[in-house]
Amino acid sequence: MPSLFLIKFPNPTPVSATSFCENYHEKMRAEGLSLDRFCFPPLLKAASRNLSLRTGMEIHGLASKLGFGSDPFVETGLVRMYAASGRIMEAGLVFDKMSHKDVVTTD
What we know:
The chain is mainly alpha-helical. The chain has a domain at 38-107. Helices cover 60% and strands 0% of the residues. The chain is built from 6 helices and no strands. The longest helix has 14 residues, at 17-30. InterPro entries: PPR_At4g14850-like_plant, TPR-like_helical_dom_sf. GO terms for molecular function: RNA binding.
């Protein structure tokens, strides 16, 4: 199954992460594809590197809306994104709710 990142995006314009994901989620569904749990960690990492808390929170909301909020890959990305943004309390809340904690998560 092709990844979200292998699809060519025509005429890129600045949009919110949620709009971006939702628009391409709809496009992918129309083509018989769908977002999976592996699409969210790179988006969260990009938000972390840009110190864009708002974008990271939008991605968090979309992941939850689509049913990926309790996925270990997504949760680990969320913990790291919140910690990188200085939101240690939120990182701790996500970590405390995680059902599967491992060496990668606690590092």
